Amino acid sequence: MVFETFEVGTVPFNSDGWGPPDASDTSSTSVAAANLLPNVPLASFSRSEKLGRVADWTRSLSNPSARPPTGSKSDPSAIFDFSAFAVDEGFGLANPDEDAAFRLVDGKPPPRPKFGPKWRFNQYHNRNQLPQRRDEEVEAKKREAEKDRARRDRHYNMNRNNIHQQRREAAAFKSSVDIQPEWNMLEQIPFSSFSKLSFTVQEPEDLLLCGGLECYDRTFDRITPKAERRLERFKNMSFKVTTSDDLVIRRLAKEDKATVFATDAILAALMCAPRSVYSWDLVIQRVGNKLFFDKRDGSPLDLLSVHETSQEPLPEGKDDINSAHSLGVEAAFINQNFAQQVLVKNGKREAFDEPIPNANEGEENASVAYRYRRWKLDDSMYLVARCELQSTVELNNQKSFLTLNALNEFDPKYSGVDWRQKLETQRGAVLANELKNNGNKLAKWTAQALLANADMMKIGFVSRVHPRDHFNHVILSVLGYKPKDFAGQINLNTNNMWGIVKSIVDLCMKLSEGKYVLVKDPSKPQVRIYEVPADAFENDYVEEPLPEDEQVQPPEENNTEGGRAETNEAAEDKKPEGQA
Fold first, then answer.
1. pLDDT 10s digits, 233-261
2. What is the 3-state secondary structure (H, E, C) of 303-332?
3. Please, are residues 476 and 226 in contact by the beta-carbon 8 Å criterion?
């Protein structure tokens, strides 16, 4: 066997240190140059120089014209750039001039997906990204933020310029009572001052219980939307009179039992005034040292507001079945029939101390009881209120008093929640939606139940048979709540309620004897107190309303002598001939 000789090249010896000898050593340099391969670049370096990448595979070459020339001193990676020495098919060294545009590695960054969890994962974990890609991501985020901001601004402007919103605001600018030229505005109280009021009252004293109550039929608690029950019609047997016309209150006033007299509906309107949106009014009479809070005939308090606190607009036309006035009449009609239908019809009624005051003899009265209660406001001031109860029931072998009210659904398109689909499975969502649309009405019902010391408040859910039929209704469900617990759910503070009443009473007690009107401003969250003639709101009183733009003006603007003279002349011209 013949072996090929293997010659080992001469390795120069560097006596000064490691590595190839310096170029100054001519003897060793000639030997080293003979062992080097041709056309292989060798970059010498010192220990003070920083070593970069051996080969830059991530450098962007999208704009080679902007890059410094290869090999120049301004190009820091030129000494490690081997791209010009590409290997050809013959395993030889290619000509740099022919393959100057050839690149082994594409320096362009990979495409980035816009969405998906994988991209978020990479964004979170990939910390060693290039500055160029990070800048692109920052710019992309800025563009998305600008788009979102523009989208929000567009939606805000659309809602602001919505024709329905304008219609609702226009419909709300109507006062519940026409302000007369001779009325003098005394006080203007914003609702913002009511939120800070607080007053703690002691437990009230029961003075008298009048009327009679029938038992509640518990079978109505099992009604569901699938087992609905038709709402029946009953004869109008409810007979309510205002405070000053109540014979029992007149008798208590003569006996000097209290200083302030009112009903639970009037007190509830004052206690929940900050939640109100529609305009309402009360008549205040100061007689001697007594103060009577009344409601006038045809007052909005006789009806029930519907969709008062909702943002969805209602039709303006009074003849429309879905207008605010038509829905108020329908709600009052539903509540009256509901309160009579859910009672046990066996002819048994529990009678109390006295019959209902002001009722005609021989006429059948509704199942109602008036509880006259007295609260102590201070050492020399007491308040007597007539509180109403509608039914009684045996709970845990104890007699409990109930209040009966009904919410009505007129069109799911307005409410946003279809009771027939959601009431059985999502009662909480339905109740939350009603608190949003009818928050003031539910708060007043709760306040009345607290004033009457009711053990339970029953709330019925009544809907139309068809959205366009406002005469026929069905009962879908009946729910029961304890007044104190329900007040906590709707954020109704008892101390704040009494603080509002106490502040109004203290303000009215400073007024002189006469008649006054407290009006909720139709367009602003505030109430105003006007001094009115003694014969105001009586049958022979002639009302000539002011223009709407003058009704909302403070009296200071019209306190000039010329303005008063014009007002008096206009009032004289508008009097009937018999009153000249």
1. 887 666 578 888 889 999 999 999 999 99
2. CCCCCCCCCCCCCCCCCCCCCHHHHHHHHH
3. no
